[in-house]
Amino acid sequence: MNNYNKLLNNLETLKLDKIRENIDNYIELINTKKKDIVDSLYELTNLEIEMLNQRKIEHSIQFAGFPYQKTLEDFDFTFQPSLNKDQIMDFKNLRFIENKENILFVGSPGVGKTHLATAIGLENAKNNHSTYFINCHDLIEILKKSHSQNRLDEKLKTLAKYKLLIIDEVGYLPIDIEASNMLFQLINKRYEKSSTIITTNKPFSKWGELFGDNMIANAILDRLLHHSHVISINGKSYRTKDILSIQKNDEN
Predict the structure, then answer these.
(1) Which residues, listed in sequence order, are joined to residue 169 by a DSSP beta bridge?
(2) pTM of the entire structure?
(3) Which of 6, 52, 93, 203 is 20 to 30 A from 109 via CA?
(4) CA–CA separation, 197 vs 207, rounded Å?
(5) What is the DSSP string of 149-184?
(6) What would the DSSP string read from start to end of 68-82?
């Protein structure tokens, strides 16, 4: 076996797929003196690094647990004129992450809260920042299970480490006192250390009823609202947009 074939085998063994894929082109460029060996090696290793970074991003997105992958560009701001588009689009810059600020989306079901939260989370994951998306009810079930296994502290520490934690649909199901206390512990661990995005259909004035205790609700809100962006969405259900459009066309 000649050294060229040995080189290809080594690249395969080392899983340097991009270099193996492009090595023939660069050998030709070197032989024809269109590139020197140093530039060629630099560009080949850059290709490999880009592939490695892309794989990391894909892993971050997959691990985040998003319900779907939608971007801010996919959102129809004309359907929700109450929103400040410039403010929402600025979240793509992730300044709120660097400043350890929270975002709370408040509005009726279907107005696009989850879409916006997911899109911002996706942008964070694309920047290879640890991101985790979870439904509030599922989060409560996980915390309760961890508590029953005497592993609550361990689970809270894990959830507190994410650069961005997205808790979706707070308020869609009642929360008992035990769950309220565990959620407070989580929010408290993340307070001023990392960013949290909340979507909720309940106005903050109703959170005392939601959590079954005004003191706990106020303690949670106090930590969430400090250093935060509150986005209230007053509009029609985003899910019915296409249906309403069809009905309008039928009437015409």
Answers:
(1) none
(2) 0.85
(3) 93
(4) 16
(5) TT-HHHHHHHHHH-SEEEEEEETSS---HHHHHHHH
(6) S---GGGS-GGG-TT
